[in-house]
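Example record

One chain of 504 residues, shown exactly as stored in the release files.
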Amino acid sequence: MDFLANYDQGALLPLLVSCAALAFLFVISTRVKPGSPPSPLRLPIIGHIHHMSKRPHRALQKLAQKYGPLMLVKVGPVPFYIVSSAKLAREISKSEDTSIPARPRLKAANVLFPGHRDLIFSPYGHFWRHARKICVNELLSLKRVLSFHHIREQEVAKMAEVLRCNKPSSPVNLGSMFVKLADTIVRKAVLGEKYGGDECSKLVGELARNAADLVSGPCLGDYFPMLSWFDTLTGHTAKAKRTSQGWNKFLDQVIDEHQARPGHAVARLDDAKDFVDILLQLQKEDTVGLELTRENIKSILVDMFVGSIDTSAAIMEWIMAELAKHPTIMKKVQEEIRRVVGDKKKIDEQDFQHMEYYQCVIKESLRLHGPSTMARQTSSATTLGGFDIPGDTTVFINLWAIQRDPMLWEKPLEFKPERFLNTSHGFKGQDDKYFPFGMGKRICPGSQFALSEVEYAIANLLCWFDWKLPEGVKLEDLDMRDTFALVTRKESPLQLVPSLHKAV
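Predicted structure tokens for this chain:
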């Protein structure tokens, strides 16, 4: 009290007014509207950014444990509704035809896919329905995926040969090896054998990484529209334009070369057709209910790279990381694979139907390390879980949290492939609690393409090679931290020591 009595009253009044104004702003900014879901305390201007980390899927899971399976989080002035329960995720999938049909509109996606004339970011409607039909029935059907078996065999054989020539007791970087494998397989399937060489790898790899980073990384203008100019200063806008121009130039050349072939797509045998052949043939036949322009074709082709390389590579790396972390499980799955393969010199893709435990290992790895989130955009005001959700608002489904929900999974943080034995859990998004590739109409259409590659590559690594950690590295030292992106990548590349299996 003596302090207040002796303090300069003229200086004290502005201070008290400022404190009162800040308190008023804090109360107003943290007030939750009636009918809205629970929301953590937030700060003026920045919202809930202070609750986040470089792994927002983990931060959001922690908040959900306190505030419930549906909560409101604001990044700056932009609201996001976070779903962390399988039941609410199912409710969303049932609303895809009406109120929650599309993906959020991002600045980077606007540049990469002008007019959103691609599959990933186009709004729900005539174009999206027919573009998805083309992908599901023509590009990524089971028949088409099986037709690329020779590409998988060639590239996995090359990878195995590199491992055979590896210096004894020397670790290999499996992270970079899997990225190269996934990149090459996708390039050959999408663009053709001609584009499978190393001379094309650097260009396409850089364009694909940039595109994936742009649509999954932070863009200030998406959260603070008034600060969109800052993205120009940081180079984010220029990077998006440069990446878009790079894709356009490269794919224009690819399409021109395909069209320059005598009779081009139509004349080729069906099993020899790449995605460009198929799209050009559909364009010529004009029977798909959609005008396939060159720009549409290029956007769909970019989708194939953005959505597949990182996904396949990350899944393979996580499977090997979990097996390295659990050598008893690795030994068990190796014994099954080697028993099924027997005396054969090559694994046949038909063998996988007899590898039950191996399938469980893949499913468990995807449960723990699949895509982290799914995003949807409301087209109109709706309700979810009894709460009001405004129109034109983003809803995030935290798949990472759902696949670790102790109400759904016994000991959810443990790697236990046995939990999938004698169950019907699959990859088609129709399960009540297991949907690693999403669900509903927006489920990943390329899941079969990715799984075929993963199954074949990992089975070969486990069949023909034995694996151990580098010298001096203990099981408890193996870094299992992840990063947040379109998929949860392993933060530090996995390095293991291969040795040729004695029976080979």
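Notes: Residues 56-500 form a domain with the Cytochrome p450 fold (CATH 1.10.630.10).
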